[in-house]
Amino acid sequence: MQLNQYIDHTLLKATATKADIIQLCSEAKQHQFFSVCVNSCYVGLAKAELQDSTIKVCSVIGFPLGAMSTSAKVEETKQALNDGADEIDMVLNIGLLKSNDFDAVLKDIQAVKSQMPNNVLKVILETCYLNEDDITKASTLAIKAGADFIKTSTGFGTDGATIKDVKLMKNAIGNGTTKIKASGGIRDTKTALKYINIGVQRIGTSNGIAIVTGSNSVKNNY
């Protein structure tokens, strides 16, 4: 697979304007990225901009904290799907995980997945806040709940993807079919390839152009 087809071209910062999203979609078409990843209010705009392309629209849900009620996540998911989202990246409820309320974490993810049986769901673990046992448990819960991908980070935490954390996620998947998305801090070709070479199947980044062209990154945020 070509490098550009690993990339979810991402713009999630609070100050992103309509014009910024239109530019994001234009860049995605120019470089033929797999998808654009946007906040849910911009799904309709991104879908319209990409209507004559094969590029998918990914919406984040419960972003970036994961601490919304399950019903709020479900309603946001429904709206994003109605607006044309092809994929959903939801944030796991980190506080409930840390509370050892694993049943609530599981049901939170299951409730979102139940709205989208035929669409790709990625569950963001936010690994920077988790220890090794937490990462393994979060991965296992997400897999059990039907996640198509488990994802490292929002890009808004204290740190992003690490090779160590991805290996823990891989171990949790074992022989299963769940995939891994690495995100947060992946800004150049060498770093992206490092993750792809250990089995990551999607890269979330605001530096997709730098990654596929080999140029220096000009953006440092998500």
Automatic annotation (TrEMBL):
Catalytic residues as annotated in Swiss-Prot or TrEMBL: 89, 151, 181
Record GO cellular component, one term: cytoplasm
Entry annotated with the keyword Lyase: yes
Parts forming coiled coils: none
Catalytic activity as recorded in UniProt: 2-deoxy-D-ribose 5-phosphate = D-glyceraldehyde 3-phosphate + acetaldehyde
InterPro entries linked to this entry: Aldolase_TIM, DeoC, DeoC/FbaB/LacD_aldolase, DeoC_typeI
Pathway(s) where this gene product acts: Carbohydrate degradation; 2-deoxy-D-ribose 1-phosphate degradation; D-glyceraldehyde 3-phosphate and acetaldehyde from 2-deoxy-alpha-D-ribose 1-phosphate: step 2/2
GO biological process terms held by the UniProt record: 2-deoxyribose 1-phosphate catabolic process; carbohydrate catabolic process; deoxyribonucleotide catabolic process
The EC number(s) this enzyme carries: 4.1.2.4
SMART domains the record matches: DeoC
Pfam family, one: DeoC
Localization annotation: Cytoplasm
Molecular function GO labels: deoxyribose-phosphate aldolase activity
Role: Catalyzes a reversible aldol reaction between acetaldehyde and D-glyceraldehyde 3-phosphate to generate 2-deoxy-D-ribose 5-phosphate.
Family: Belongs to the DeoC/FbaB aldolase family. DeoC type 1 subfamily.
Name listed for the protein in its UniProt record: Deoxyribose-phosphate aldolase
Species the sequence originates in: Olleya aquimaris
